[in-house]
Amino acid sequence: MRLTVYADGASRGNPGPAAIGASVRDAEGQELATVSERIGRATNNVAEYRAAIAGVRAAADLGASAIDLRLDSELVVRQLAGRYRVKHPLLRPLFAALVEALEAVGPYTVGHVPRARNARADALANEALDRRG
Length: 133
Hints:
It is a single chain. The protein is α/β, with parallel strands linked by helices. The chain has one domain: Ribonuclease H-like superfamily/Ribonuclease H (Nucleotidyltransferase, domain 5), CATH 3.30.420. Helices cover 38% and strands 32% of the residues. It contains four helices and five strands, in the order βββαβααβα. A five-stranded mixed β-sheet has the order 3-2-1-4-5. β2 and β3 form a beta hairpin. The radius of gyration is 13 Å and the shape is globular. It starts with a strand and ends with a helix.
């Protein structure tokens, strides 16, 4: 089953308090699972990667056999496409973990979406940041 993962990370301060959000959807657009959690102090780019990893893992847990990953982070999308090198030492293991998670599922695509089309994942990340505790 092919699932679409919309993922977004948020950091207030960059680095600062950070959270991740992801929405896993089926071919009809029905939301099957969500991720919304704080990840401590991190940069926005770290949060973006961690959101994508968590979303892909949630899709895998649902039995996905193919994934369409959609992000509003041009950096992550371009790094996954091989257009940009992953230079930052904090991002290298996250890049490797994301590729490993994607490849473990099966065929995948990665694409950039405008922020407006990633609103649900953004809201999930911000809800986690706004929750107390």
